[in-house]
Write a structure and sequence with these properties.
Length: about 375
């Protein structure tokens, strides 16, 4: 049952190219299905979440992270009576614009684009994918998703200024995104905070002892679990702590947001949009815990020398190839040659690289740059 403030698919502002309604799937259900069947969605499997060098097959990649976000987002949406089809669609599409190598890739592309007076943003790139790069239908380019899904894509975790980004003006930039879209920001973060503790320990970069020492809330859970299961294997105690942590955060998000929606007297989806701030948020206490986990992960995992040395190397891979195609645009695939007639070369090269998987870009680097470096080394000798 939807709450009165859920965004119903009948209220959608529709698609760019009008289509006949489907006999048994709502507009948002169709959008979800279009995302799942897209090539960009399949590529998530070979894109870095945190660990590029996958020494273990148990680490999350962008696809499994996306599925975890969808699970959490659906739980929150159904507990709050939101439209879980729209929420699920937004969760499944939320990372589709990520370049290879996770944040290293994003940083390298953004740095390159700033050099040409532009930026790289993964939300904007996701919008270009669903509007332009996915080719599946004879009638139009892109997936022809509903307005609300496209709006949710660009408003994921950030706001835009219409004067700076006039091309986004149609997306109601002075309004908050629907509550269904607001769920995704938190579901994303709650998912990766817990997952990265898990993968961090699996990788050997983090230890259980360090987590217990640095995160008092985690230590409290550990003591609880030790009391309940004194004889369990430490590995199982750890996963029980992670399970409890995630459950605690998601439950807090549901209660705190539900309380906020009631206190603000929101009875329609449009009122949530007009409200001066995003209503889907954790309580003050849980938010402090979220921040502490995030800071800990930055300091001890993401910025650890093991991961940051790797990142520098990966940023170089992207910079090398960016330079290569700027100098040799004729070597771009035919479809990007076409795009060169309409857009600046830097944007075309950026789009091409951003769409790549980790595997593909490493092979390209080997073929285009690796080989060339060998030749130059031989020449110097
Ligand atoms: Mg994500």
């Amino acid at each position: 049952m939807y709450a009165p403030y859920a965004l119903r698919s009948e209220e959608s502002r529709g698609r760019r190219y009008p289509e006949k309604p489907h006999p048994y799937r709502s507009a948002f259900q169709r959008d979800r299905d279009r995302v799942v069947h897209s090539r960009a969605f399949r590529r998530l499997e070979s894109k870095t979440q945190v660990f590029t060098n996958r020494e273990s097959d148990h680490f999350r990649n962008r696809l499994t992270h996306t599925i975890e976000v969808a699970q959490i987002a659906r739980t929150v949406a159904s507990a709050l009576g939101l439209n879980s089809d729209l929420t699920e669609t937004l969760a499944l599409v939320h990372d589709i614009g990520h370049p290879p190598f996770g944040h290293a890739g994003e940083k390298a592309l953004d740095r390159k684009m700033r050099h040409y007076g532009d930026i790289f943003d993964h939300n904007l790139h996701a919008l270009r994918i669903v509007e332009y790069f996915e080719l599946r239908y004879p009638e139009f380019r892109g997936l022809n998703l509903t307005f609300e899904v496209r709006e949710g894509i660009i408003k994921h975790s950030r706001d835009w200024d219409a004067s700076e980004f006039p091309e986004l003006a149609e997306y109601l930039l002075d309004q908050r995104p629907p509550l269904e879209a607001q769920v995704i920001d938190l579901a994303d973060e709650l998912a990766y905070n817990v997952a990265d503790l898990d993968d961090g320990v699996e990788s050997g970069i983090l230890s259980l002892e360090l987590i217990r020492e640095r995160l008092p809330e985690f230590e409290r859970l550990w003591k609880e679990v030790e009391k309940n299961y004194p004889d369990a294997l430490p590995k199982l105690k750890f996963s029980e702590c992670l399970r409890r942590k995630l459950d605690h955060m998601v439950t807090d998000l549901i209660h705190a947001s539900g309380h906020r929606i009631r206190a603000a007297r929101i009875h329609r989806a449009s009122e949530a949009r007009q409200y001066p701030e995003r209503l889907l948020r954790l309580s003050t206490e849980a938010d402090a815990e979220r921040r502490a986990t995030k800071e800990f992960l930055h300091e001890c995992l993401y910025d650890s020398s093991m991961l940051s040395d790797d990142r520098e190397r990966l940023e170089d891979v992207i910079s090398d190839l960016f330079r290569f195609w700027m100098e040799n645009p004729k070597d771009l695939p035919a479809s990007y040659q076409e795009q060169l007639e309409q857009e600046k070369p830097a944007r075309v090269v950026c789009d091409y690289i951003a769409g790549m998987t980790d595997n593909f870009i490493l092979r390209e680097h080997e073929a285009r740059i690796g080989g060339r470096e060998d030749v130059e080394q031989k020449r110097r000798r």
